[in-house]
Amino acid sequence: MRNFVFIFLALILLPAYMSGQVIKGKVSDKNDVGIPGAIVIAVDSKTNTDTDFDGNFNINAKVGEVLKVSMVGFDAISVKVTSETMAITMNESKDTELKEVVVIGYGTAKKRDLTGSIVKVEGKMIADKPNTNPVASLQGRVSGLSIVNSGQPGAEPDVRIRGTVSRYNTKPLYVVDGIFTDNINFINANDIESMEILKDPSSLAIFGVRGANGVIIISTKKAKEGKTTINYNTILGVKSIVSKPSLANASQFKTLYNEQRLNEGAAPYAYYDKFTGDTDWINSISNDNATIINHNLSVTNGTDKNKFYLGVGLVQDEGLIDYENYKKFTFNLNNELQISDAIKVGVGFSGVDARPAQLHSFSSALNATPIVEPYNSEKGVYNQLPTQIGGAQIGNPLLYVEGTQGTQLNRETRFVGNVFAEFKLFKDLKFRAAYYADLGYNKGTAYNPVFNVYTAETDQLTLAGGSSQTSINQYSNTYEKTQQDYLFTYNKTFGNHSLTALAGYTRYYFGYESINGSVSQYIGGEPIPNDRRWWYLNVYPYGDPSSSRSSSGQYENGTVSYLARALYNYDSKYILNASFRRDGSSAFIGDNRFQNFWSLGGAWDVSKEDFMQDQKIFNTLKLKGSYGELGNQYTSIQYPSYPNYTTGASAVFGETLVPAYILAYRSNPNLKWETVTSYEGGIEVGTLDNRLKLEATYFNKTTNDLLTFVNLGAESFYTNAGEISNTGFEFSASWNDSVNDDFEYSISGNLTTLKNEVKSVYEEGFQVADGPSILTAGSPIGSFYGYIVEGIYQSYSDVLSSTPSSLGDYGPGDLKYKDVNGDGKITPDDRTIIGNPTPDIMYGMSVSATYKNFTLSADLQGVYGNEVWRDWGSGSTFAQFNYRTERLDRWNGAGTSNWEPRLNDGSGYNKQNSSYMIEDGSYVRLRNVQLAYNFDSKLLNKFYIQGLKLFINAQNPVTWNNNSGFTPEAGGSPISFGRDFGGYPLPAIATLGLNVTF
């Protein structure tokens, strides 16, 4: 009986034994370093596993069976099982795209498994650039990404992805380590690991109502396994103005002003003898030695169980105008702990403590007459500008820079934190719960002093600007943003199929409160001292309680969302991405609180097909496309469905006057968020052993149900009516090659075409105007609107023989406007679109060459086909204040000019919005040039240094442009942008830097 049982059990177990046994192995690279996360598949046994942190694996297979091993960044390999213990070596793939893992919404993915347009920029590309805002360094580097930088310290760049899609907001959504935000001033560029720019519907739909403007995902640095590492990076830079507007000097000003008074029928100016200066006001207020200093220190330590990172940074940035000082301290701390194979927890904490600069503008320096000396040494006070030449409109520029220095004390403090826990529920399923908080605390005090200035015409001291009372203004505001994410992620590979699925729930809350107050000194009393110890509202005994004013504001809003996504890959050839999100918002009423957003994308990697294996041309050939609906939650107010109250007609009851209150506008219960329907199609090509890579994409984004505020006079209301279209092509190319072991180089470039058109706004003929900018159907958003100038009337006979005008009195020397509608007269109906602030083409190019330890790199960037509106030195100010030197070519007789009108400020005819104010906005800029030297590791090892890099960098050293202002770049609102107010230059910055790692 016992033998029978033995034989019976052997017969049962034999098939299982024959079908497989536990095979142990290790997967390593060519340096014998274990590769974690590699996928091992037993072909016959239909079993699979992945390698642990050290590259080890166990799998049920049998001797003689084939194992397939794959890993991102390595060539797939097939090996036959020869023993119960296997050692497998993988070679790194030459296709760098295989290595690239990108961060997407609520997770990561292999770039090859995606169907859309995501561009990854490594943090090292921006860490050594002298920009206080990291996004500024992306200018010209990414197709479809428009960045307009400002030279003011601490200023935020104007960022637009694939055009302007709404009338209320252009900002993309920033996602920093998972938290949603609209401002990244708390981020230190040196702490950034990577930045991903998401542009297409398949990657954006997962963000729901906040995805329409595009998304920039920022991942901060995390520690990697290894010993403790300390890194110190510092930059010292000097700024300069490289392009100044050309203005009249004292002699030229007198010539032009004398002629202007003559044309106006006024007597010659009688006080030239009292104004003998020849002042360049731009130079007088410029900080010729403005500096920027960055210090960054990071400490990392990582083991297989715990990863710790700490980074701190200090920025000191001086403006191009004296006494503009911006200081910012940042820190970033994160720690991840692997409690067990199934549980991981982490915490992150970032913050910023900033002292914003007291900012000024060059606008007054452009307008101030040059015949005045800034300071009167004899009287010991500043000189006032001539009363008849701008003195009533603008003050002495130097007075308001030097006299108000240190009178604004602002502080911005912000803390951003997150905590998460990740649970591996099953082998292929994990759950992640995360909580995020973004807390801001801002406050400021402003002291408004009183000055005496010398008035030369009357030989008296007078009060500057007519102000006789000192005063104090104070403000304080706080905000709270919190976010909760609960996510399930399923990742499974079975045979040739690969699936990553995501499902989850998220909540977002935003609350804001502000308080403002002011107080003035007693009339005729002692001034409030110019001493910060006295700068508060209850300033006894100087502040007059009866002058005290206060106000406050507060609001809150929130969203709740459900989301899902699937990334499917079959045999690395056929790729399908699908996303869905349902958002609920507190801003709307009823069913319109909820909206659904979705996308579907597909890709075909043609190069993986069998029929492509014998060809030698394409290393990569991928076709892709996606379609989806995105959302836009931005409006001009917080609750468009809930009108506030405003003062209405009052009534008298007996002897009592009772004020009435009415709704600010008519309520519309059918309001909902704007929807952007977007689709794209493209191709990716890699050839010549992947040294040459090309990508081309067509995109189309159409905003539907445009949120529009309609004011008809008798009534006003918000409604969903209107459509905006953005279409274009994106092209990018790169070449990377090594000549030999000592020399390698790379060239890359990108180009974007963009066509923006407002298809409709409410109803036919409805327009929204902001100065010369307009939102109207049939034209690009923010187009410039006015009269077309055809020339200048050269004589009275020219006036009589030309189309008559109803715009005012005019004569020889005045601008000649075009009869656009052909009705035989010049009227307001002849106004038309005269310029487009959106470029037709944006482009950038980068080159880099490394020879031994030296690296030389350069970036070029530019735009073409847009116009700039000159809002200084023209219109109402082209004659009253100082003159552009172009005015020396003014009309002063038949045939003398056919563009610059006569000097006559008494006539408003030439001050109409017209193409006279339009300038070419196209430019080419040498964005960065850098020379770096990396010291030899053998030398550094003697001093226990891992790496040492010295570099010099020149930013914005040269700009080729056609406009007359400081810079052709001008950001702004969605409707009003591209307007040059002459306020601030974009500086050239020369920097010296050091990066050392211990």
From TrEMBL:
Membrane topology: Multi-pass membrane protein
Gene Ontology annotations for the cellular component aspect, listed alphabetically: cell outer membrane
An annotated GO BP: iron ion transport
Chief location bin: membrane
Compartmental location: Cell outer membrane
Top-level lineage group: Bacteria
Keywords for the protein's UniProt record, in alphabetical order: Cell outer membrane, Ion transport, Iron, Iron transport, Membrane, Receptor, TonB box, Transmembrane, Transmembrane beta strand, Transport
Domain TonB-dependent receptor plug, residue spans: 110-215
TonB-dependent receptor-like beta-barrel domain residues: 429-956
Alphabetical list of InterPro entries matching this protein: Beta-barrel_TonB, Beta-barrel_TonB_sf, CarboxyPept-like_regulatory, Plug_dom, Plug_dom_sf, TonB-dep_OMP_SusC/RagA, TonB-dep_OMP_SusC/RagA_CS, TonB-dep_rcpt-like
Family: Belongs to the TonB-dependent receptor family.
Name assigned to this protein: TonB-dependent receptor
Organism listed in the record: Flavobacterium franklandianum
